[in-house]
Amino acid sequence: MSSVTIENVTGVVIESLGKHGPITDRNREIMTSLVRHLHDFCRDVKLQHHEFIAACQYLARAGQVCDDKRQEFILLGDILGVEVLCDMLTNSVEGTESESTVLGPFYREHPPVLPKGATTAQTHFDGEETVYVEGYVRDAEGKPVAGVTIDIWEDAPNGLYENHDPAQPDFNLRGRFETDENGHYAMRALRPVPYPIPNNETAGELLRMMGHHPNRPGHLHMLLAKDGYRTLVTQIYDSESRWLDEDSVFAVKGSLIGTFEPGRAEHGTDLYLRFDFVLKDAAAEQQIAAE
Ligand SMILES: [Fe+2]
């Protein structure tokens, strides 16, 4: 039997993979790379044992913060830029399709199904600005896509999502709309405002360790789905919002910035936002994956 050393321990661990049980090719690929990079990281910074224990205790605390309304590990991944990187690796853009960005920790499934043009706002806030949002959903050939469900969710003018604010009605500022036969959608909402991501627990510790602020620019979250097309998880950013160039989770992309114009008389809202989307055909997606 040979002894482990600083130099050989990485190879010893990698060679052990699958020795005592079946392992899939993907798991072997992931674990081999994980061990290699993790060991190199430890050697790089000469990670000390007390620092390893502190990291274990930190992760334990992060787990204790998680419940059905708070997913601390997504926040940590966001702060480190990992979620946006994984999203880009998953939803690569080769053509004219709309860019995706992070889902984030605030999405709730099964929002209220609303008719075209309805509002997601169930209550009023001081200083709120109403906005009429509309646009078209098309495929890569420019043909309208009917029957696309569009989930929208956003923070209230107080900077809080309803599931983190007991004062707001359930599912406030959330809704599910559908495109018509022309691929057209329309909804009423509120101008989103910048907000700090939750930073009172381990996410805050990480932000402080990195010398970062917690703020995100104002944005509307959207999730577009229809069988036969790649699901699009994205956000529309307010071109006039603060923090646009220094988003705490690195999720802003130039193609996702929208312009909030003065409202039009026929809509009766303070503001107007037009934003179109291009969905990627799922068959084209599978073809690329197979190549
Ligand atoms: Fe958000």
From TrEMBL:
Keyword Metal-binding annotated: yes
Cleaved signal peptide residues: none
Record keywords, A-Z: Dioxygenase, Iron, Metal-binding, Oxidoreductase
GO biological process, one term: catechol-containing compound metabolic process
Domain named Intradiol ring-cleavage dioxygenases: residues: 133-161
InterPro entries membership: Catechol_dOase_N, Intradiol_dOase_C, Intradiol_dOase_core, Intradiol_RC_Dioxygenase
Swiss-Prot/TrEMBL cofactor(s): Fe(3+)
Pfam families referenced in this protein's UniProt entry, alphabetically: Dioxygenase_C, Dioxygenase_N
Gene Ontology terms, MF aspect: catechol 1,2-dioxygenase activity; ferric iron binding
Family: Belongs to the intradiol ring-cleavage dioxygenase family.
Name of the molecule in the record: Hydroxyquinol 1,2-dioxygenase
Organism: Pannonibacter phragmitetus
